[in-house]
Amino acid sequence: MADQIPLYPVRSAAAAAHRKRAAYYSAAGPGSGAEWPSRYQLEDESAHLDEMPLMMSEEGFENDESDYHTLPRARTARRRRGLERFVCGGWKLLCTSCCDWLVNICQRKRELKARTVWLGCPEKCEEKHPRNSIKNQKYNIFTFIPGVLYEQFKFFLNLYFLVVSCSQFVPALKIGYLYTYWAPLGFVLAVTIMREAIDEFRRFQRDKEVNSQLYSKLTVRESKNSIGHGISEDVRKSSGLFYCGPLAPRGSGGSQSWQKRPLHSASSCFIRTDQLDGETDWKLKVAVSCTQRLPALGDLFSISAYVYAQKPQLDIHSFEGTFTREDSDPPIHESLSIENTLWANTIVASGTVIGVVIYTGKETRSVMNTSNPKNKVGLLDLELNQLTKALFVALVALSVVMVTLQGFVGPWYRSLFRFLLLFSYIIPISLRVNLDMGKAAYGWMIMKDESIPGTVVRTSTIPEELGRLVYLLTDKTGTLTQNEMVFKRLHLGTVSYGADTMDEIQGHLRNPCPQMQSQAGGNNASSTPPRKAQSSAPKVRKSVSSRVHEAVKAIALCHNVSPVYESRAGVGGEAEYAEADQDFSDGNRTYQAASPDEVALVQWTESVGLTLVSRDLGSVQLRTPSGQIQTYCILQMFPFTSESKRMGVIVRDESTAEITFYMKGADVAMSSIVQYNDWLEEECGNMAREGLRTLVVAKRALTEEQYQDFESRYSQAKLSIHDRALKVAAVVESLERQMELLCLTGVEDRLQADVRPTLELLRNAGIKIWMLTGDKLETATCIAKSSHLVSRTQDIHIFRPVTNRGEAHLELNAFRRKHDCALVISGDSLEVCLKYYEHELAELACQCPAVVCCRCSPTQKARIAKLLQHHTGKRTCAVGDGGNDVSMIQAADCGIGIEGKEGRQASLAADFSVTQFRHIGRLLMVHGRSSYKRSAALGQFVMHRGLIISTMQAVFSSVFYFASVPLYQGFLMVGYATIYTMFPVFSLVLDQDVKPETAMLYPELYKDLTKGRSLSFKTFLVWVLISIYQGGILMYGALLLFESEFVHVLAISFTALILTELLMVALTIRTWHWLMAVAEVLSLGCYVASLAFLNEYFDVAFITTVTFVWKVSAITMVSCLPLYVLKYLKRKLSPPSYTKLTS
Q: What strand order describes the sheet that includes 821-826?
């Protein structure tokens, strides 16, 4: 069995591998390969699968011609070991375990079950369902403060500050004033709590707005309005009604079984699903036919009927249920499918819907596909957290060394704690303050950038993530494309019409086709027998004019488009007067369809003269250029499916009684159906290279006998209980033989502005782009080519549909042999591969230059983002514009929302909001780079500021017999971390290594950022060595040069320390800004002015002497001059990459 595939099998023999290769790649049919089992039969042959392990390395291709090789499975789990694992994981594991235990106790998930809902009789429903409301808040009034504090103190840095601050309440451990410890910590916590409170209040307001929407409830006596508690989910056009939840004000229905009020004989309506699946096209929904025969709405309460629905699930593309009416003889049973349902967050765009609420609240599809928002933490913050742990280890080691050298005299443990507090400045609390203020400054700069107007920073804690991205996950519809289709090309085999030659088609249509006229006359005279003779007669070459007529008519008939006329009287009219209130002029007509491609085709036929003027479920009316109305009766409709990749319609011409089967679809599906030709494949390739979406159109004439035979078999197949889908498909396929090829159409999906250069910019920056879309495979592949997501020189590997482990196993092996090709995979196949071969698929896909995932549900999009995070450890960014992208945006390390046609749901849920996709290039290349570089320099400099004073404290204590006495006290320590050095250090947020124009011109510079070289243990150790050198020079120099009083040591060392810090800021700066110079002068002026008020710490008479000045200058020169010399030599001998571009 497929489940027995070993992950560590023994290498198979070459003959067995050859046998498996033949079984997989041979066609199932007569011929040389017919004796081999088909690809799908391999699932039941465990021996075959045992001999075909997955190939996960290039080594398997060496020195062996066999296609299958035994290779060790890729290792993906990375474990932290030793002390780091113990220190890092201990605290987090303890807190996480406790919180998870409390959550499981408080929020036990209820088991989801199928349900039976009676029409108008809620008392018969035994099951209890969740409240019809949604909740996106992370906290409640009781968990807000504990939750926020936990999120803060789960980081080692904040926890350390808390312990140090609390220690100052113990008199024996008190080192300085309480405000020197609690003021910075309180400031950080206050800012965090206020920010979280504002975000939580905004979420509460959005939930309240949705949960307060009105719905209409149908009761026995009257129809009244009341306040709804949110979203119900599947609205189905079935009989039972009784919530249209919230269909009345907005039309965003809940999960309800629904029925259409019989305003139109069509018993159908259109809905928009853009907030659910990202598709802006309108979908046709059909009512349950049983309820449409009721004379009035009140009769819904007089019948005994119920809806049986499957249990709530994630899949938004399927639904199974039944509608049963018990009071009829015999009882009426109707199957319910996806075409009878309205999900929550969909909008009724046309018609009136009456539905039965089936799913509510948390059980709706939209809520189940929405992941809970998480608190995002930047990679830079995690790296700084690791560095603070290393500093803590150094702090403890230094304290132990001091106590050891002291000789463990007296209460040595008290001395140990005092040393820990004395050296606590090694981990400066101002690090969090400076970084948080820096993040706020980066956000302000982003929003004030005139090159990307309208950009909003909604999460101010992760701007540095924009500079560390490796994977960009993007939606297609509305993100890369405008979802506006334009008809571009019509190819008839021997002649091709483009945008500049459409007038020729109009000319052909204005002139009646002689062949068609003669055909019509012959058909009227001789009816069926001549059609039989005609079908068997030899083929006659048709004129170009007749072929144009047939092609345009086929395009105008084979679709699911409905014309809509706006009402003149507005809303509020009764049903019976709706028809009279409509204006049927051409200017008042719009088209609704399940696909924008369909609308583009019908709009094109209107532009050339053949207009669709009316359509319902049973007939279609066309108007010719001469004004004549042609009516066609729709006998059968075969909708498009992702499996068949084609759609068809059987129509009867009312004037001639001619029956014709029209079909259109993707070239891969139609090439084997149409008659032999020598141009279809070539022209499809040509159009695809132009970025056009192609459709092949064909027809077949049917006699009355042929159609009656088909209808009989088709009806019987639809009533089958077992294998209904297969039997129906087999009957339809009996018609799809030797169809006459009419034409090939090319439609362009307009891309967003500057999508191609933006994608090229991101690729050159080393960012791998994955397109995750809910659209069809052919559409996604076409857009990937036209947007240059996949370059013209790259091959595309389309992952075949797989349904089980065996097929996935074989398909992964086939994909393994491809090199440097883009991957296109469907959501269903992705689900199967992730179930059995998650790591293998991730490793292979990550090697691809581009990946396209089509037919993805919102949950799958989020899962892919988490898979990349877990498997690669790299930073991911998600870009989307619809409600279906929210889960992906929240799951990624960085989420970017685009305000577009699909609303603002993605924009509000994202960390960053932009108005156009092209703005992402500057957002990443310029602001992402600057934010990361600046925060890296700022964080390391703040740690250097704490390290240097801790080194001076260590030297001071070692000289004075290892006494645990502070070197600087009170205001000196507060001033050192604030007014004396804060402004120059914080001015590093204005620094930039390259100009924005250079960063955009050379996106390759972005690749260096992903390596994390600006902040690493190497750069950190360099700053540690600098701090030790400068701290030692400053302290020993002051001790060496002081004369008589100890207070002189304080004055000399502290003044030299301030000057050294100001000079080091100047050394760190790469591009000067005028505010930087102001900050340097201001800080120096503040220090000089404060000397007059520091009588408690300094000898004012001494600091005004020349001796003080030259001693301070000498010590400062020795501490800083060597570093300036080293920096100059490094830039000359080993310049960074960006200096080569700016020189």
A: 456-457, 912-914, 894-898, 875-880, 469-474, 768-772, 850-854, 821-826, 795-798
* The residue type at 291: T
d(CA 111, CA 896): 35
Cβ neighbors of 524 (< 8 A, separation 6 or more) are: 655, 656
Q: Which residues pair with 253 in a beta bridge?
A: 346
- State the pLDDT confidence band at 515, using cuts at 50, 70 and 90: very low
Helix (H) or strand (E) holding 359: strand 353-359
Q: By the 8 A CB rule, do 263 and 575 touch?
A: yes
**CA angle 75–79–82, rounded 5-degree value:** 145
The catalytic residue among 381, 475, 597, 828 is 475
Lowest mean pLDDT among 5-14, 336-345, 842-851: 5-14
Q: Which residues of 426-453 are buried (b: 16+ CB within 10 A; e: fewer)?
A: bbbbbbbbbbbebbbbbbebbeebeebe
In percent, the amount of the chain with pLDDT more than 70 equals 78
Residues forming beta bridges with residue 662, ordered by sequence position: 649, 699
Q: What is the pTM of this model?
A: 0.70
Summarize the confidence of residues 785-796 as an average pLDDT. Answer: 84
pLDDT band at 292 (very low <50, low <70, confident <90, very high): confident
Q: Which residues make Cβ contacts (< 8 Å) with residue 299, sequence separation at least 6?
A: none
| Residue 1092 predicted with pLDDT over 60 | yes
Alpha helix locations (H) across 847-928? Answer: 858-872, 886-891, 905-909, 919-922
**What whole-number distance in Å separates Cα of residue 395 and Cα of residue 427?**
9
At position 231, the amino acid (one-letter code) is: I
Half-sphere exposure of 1059 (CA within 13 A, CB side): 20
Residue 525's pLDDT band, with cuts at 50, 70 and 90, is very low
Separation of alpha carbons 272 and 902, rounded Å:
10
Give catalytic status of residue 277 as yes or no: no
Over residues 169-183, the mean pLDDT reads 76
Instruction: Phi first, then psi: give them for residue 486, nearest 5 degrees.
Output: -130, 130
Better-predicted residue by pLDDT, 26 or 764: 764
1082 vs 748: which has the higher pLDDT: 1082
Q: What pLDDT is stored for residue 10 in this prediction?
A: 34
360 DSSP 8-state letter: B
115-118: strand order across its sheet = 115-118, 305-309, 321-325, 332-336
Alpha-carbon distance of 474 to 759, in angstroms, equals 11
Query: In Å, what is the CA distance from 633 to each residue of 36, 410, 658, 852?
Result: 47, 105, 10, 40
Q: Output the six-digit token pair for 647.
A: 């759609």
**Average pLDDT value over all residues in the chain:** 77
Output the CA angle 531-535-538, nearest 5 degrees. Answer: 125
φ/ψ of residue 490, rounded to 5: -130, 120
- The better pLDDT of the pair 580, 423 is held by 423
pLDDT at 94: 63
In sequence order, which residues have a C-beta less than 8 Å from that of residue 188 and are 6 or more positions away? Answer: 152, 158, 429, 432, 433, 436
